[in-house]
Specification:
rod-shaped, single chain, 71 residues, mainly alpha, 92% helix
Length: 71
């Protein structure tokens, strides 16, 4: 079951990278001095990617736990 553990680690790292990208994107938009409406549009575009990254990271951690349980 080592493949399940390593696949889970990969998925978790990919999800973490997505979360970091979302944070960086919104921080850059805040620093650029956009108006409230423009900033709101940026955040609306980032939210689905943020939730998808969070889900991928969670599934990856679940895969790691299952791999450890079955090993």
């Amino acid at each position: 079951m080592a493949f399940l553990i390593w696949a889970g680690v990969g998925a978790s790292l990919l999800g973490l990278a997505g979360l970091i990208w979302c944070i960086a994107k919104v921080a850059k938009a805040k620093k650029s001095g956009l108006s409230d409406d423009e900033l709101r549009d940026v955040v609306k575009k980032v939210v689905p990617l943020n939730l998808g990254s969070l889900m991928l990271s969670t599934l990856g951690l679940m895969m790691v736990i299952l791999g450890n349980f079955f090993q």
